[in-house]
Amino acid sequence: MLRRPLTRLFHQCGVQRVSQWRACHTDRSNEVLMTSHRRLAVIHDPALNRGTAFSNDERERLLLRGLVPPRQQALQFQVKRVMETYERQRTDLDKFQFLSMLMDRNTVLFYRILVDYFEELAPIVYTPVVGEACLRFHAIYRRTRGMYFSVEDRPHFRTMVYNWPKDEVDVIVVTDGSRVLSLGDLGCNSMNIPIGKLSLYVSAAGVSPSRTLPIVLDVGTDNLELRENPLYLGLNRPRLRGKEYYDLLDEWISAIRYRWPNTLIQFEDFSSLEAETLLERYRYTSAPCFNDDIQSTGCIAIAALLSSLRARGKIMSDVRDEKIVCVGAGSAGIGVCEGIIQVMECYDMAREKAYKNFYMLDENGLLGRGRQLNGKRAEFCRDDMEDGMSLLEVVRSVRPTVLLGLSGVGSLFTEDVVREMAKHVDRPVIFPMSNPSKSSECTPEEAFEWTQGRAVVATGSPFSNVLLEDGRVCYTNQANNVYSFPGLGLAVTVARIACVTDEMFLAAGRHIAELSSDEEVKKGILFPPVKQLREVSAEVAAAVVFVALEQGLAREKLPAWACESHESMVQLMKQQMWEPKYGHLVAE
Ligand SMILES: NC(=O)C1=CN([C@@H]2O[C@H](COP(=O)(O)OP(=O)(O)OC[C@H]3O[C@@H](n4cnc5c(N)ncnc54)[C@H](OP(=O)(O)O)[C@@H]3O)[C@@H](O)[C@H]2O)C=CC1
Ligand SMILES: CC(=O)C(=O)O
Ligand SMILES: [Mg+2]
């Protein structure tokens, strides 16, 4: 990606004269993989392995003759074989494991099928199945991937970062496993989350896989069941908290920055208090970082809401008139409502006034009069309403236009609630955004049935469209932060963005809202489907880069032609994407 050019192409050289080999992906990113391995070492390195696809020439030069079956096969036939075996896996968890093993075996082949069959495979490597895989991580563990930094490693953080074999890392996704989807504290079992997120950076935005690094911070867990399980792979100690926790995080981030000063860090699935504190602590002081659950979720919610205005025949500035009930006042709920407030501000609404459009509930009901709260939550507290009102009472009294679910609790949007809402609005906007699927506040089927197909629906995990009894098809959307973070990562990598700002997510969200045609949005299709995520990511990346240029945060000098228009910037972003295909092997 706008970096090292290919140096020496060396096809013809004989093996005796060659001491080192370089596997080179002649993809558009001009990425060069270095290796001094030969024979089985090449086959056992997923970044270099190409299994039956090694050419005769490569077999000769890498001393692989006889170590792979004789017939040379093109990638497309490998894809066919892999997909046939994949289809034979019995359960979703079997499919997850099958794909993990493929990822460990052959990077190009893994990403080829992930890109080509994205719609079918994303729910396996990502939500919902990744949740099940985290619950079972200790039981199904096969091979290490990424890095673990535990409390006990603390004195070694600065040196252990050098144990990672790559000098160049574009994106790190890190979790402390304290709030994994809606599954709670899973400690070290959370590793599949950063791995899954990074596989989306690669497949959905063309970030180079060799430049990604998944990390778990093992600061202990309060999940006693896991701790007492002899197969659990994390430390058997309670979670570190307070000053000690933040000191450890400071040391970790300083070690990371010591080796990789410009790498993008994505904070993922930290529990709310830590998520918000860490974001405020590092967002402006340390090179690019963001919190996915707060900021990227805000981005896709902005997109879904603005697009829903189009679906309802309104204009974008009508966002100021929305009455929004948000169930869930954690990092995602706050991130989403904060994002929508920023949109309202864009349409000249004062922030203090904008808060009045929101009604937020937590486990104790409405955040109302007299509730003692800290931080951003306090701003959403309604002094004009009784504290603790139930969701049904709130919906009855407020008559909301929008109902958001970010509670992590399935089935909270009951028939009573949805029918009550639908009495007062033509097209109720219902976004049950919690993950995984069983935590969805309602299913699209329920939302459509209880509103006679009038609802505009977007869920966090994927659900199918719904066929009503009268033959109408009702469309569902996946309002998931996967629409946001891969494109952001591509933008940060290509333009070497120094700092990730809220304005970048805002611009991306507003742009995604315009990607569907009028005809599509009228049907309730709010943005392009996940199978078009590569295109969406290029659009998101372009929108983000323009904000970075405006804010003086892009350190890379981008080609002038690309800066001429949004379309040209999209073009540049597409050109910079890593493509899963075999390049030529070249020698050093
Ligand atoms: N679609 C997407 O892209 C994304 C979805 N999410 C999903 O959002 C959900 C929440 O994430 P996050 O905010 O980080 O989690 P948190 O645990 O921080 O927050 C959950 C919030 O829901 C509240 N809550 C719990 N039970 C109820 C209930 N019965 N009624 C009303 N409110 C309730 C909690 O209340 P209290 O504070 O009292 O405990 C808390 O405010 C998860 O399922 C996550 O997977 C997250 C990020 C992205
Ligand atoms: C999607 C996501 O980030 C979450 O559910 O936490
Ligand atoms: Mg998350």
TrEMBL record:
Q: Where is the active site?
A: Y126, K197
Gene Ontology MF terms in the entry: malate dehydrogenase (decarboxylating) (NAD+) activity; metal ion binding; NAD binding
This entry's comment on the bound cofactor is:
Divalent metal cations. Prefers magnesium or manganese.
Superkingdom field: Eukaryota
**Entry's Gene Ontology cellular component terms:** mitochondrion
Supply the InterPro entries for this chain: Aminoacid_DH-like_N_sf, Malic_enzyme_CS, Malic_N_dom, Malic_N_dom_sf, Malic_NAD-bd, Malic_OxRdtase, NAD(P)-bd_dom_sf
Protein residues bound to (S)-malate: R179, N435, N480
Residues reported in the UniProt entry to bind a divalent metal cation: E268, D269, D293
**Keywords for this entry?**
Metal-binding, Oxidoreductase
What this protein needs as a cofactor is: Mn(2+); Mg(2+)
Q: Which residues form the Malic enzyme NAD-binding domain?
A: 294-549
Q: Does the keyword Oxidoreductase apply?
A: yes
Which Gene3D superfamilies does the record associate with it? Malic enzyme, N-terminal domain, NAD(P)-binding Rossmann-like Domain
A single GO BP: malate metabolic process
What Pfam families does the entry give? malic, Malic_M
| Record-annotated Malic enzyme N-terminal domain positions | 103-283
Which PANTHER family does its entry note?
Answer: MALIC ENZYME-RELATED (PTHR23406), NADP-DEPENDENT MALIC ENZYME (PTHR23406:SF32)
Q: Which family does it belong to?
A: Belongs to the malic enzymes family.
**What name does the UniProt record give this protein?**
Malic enzyme
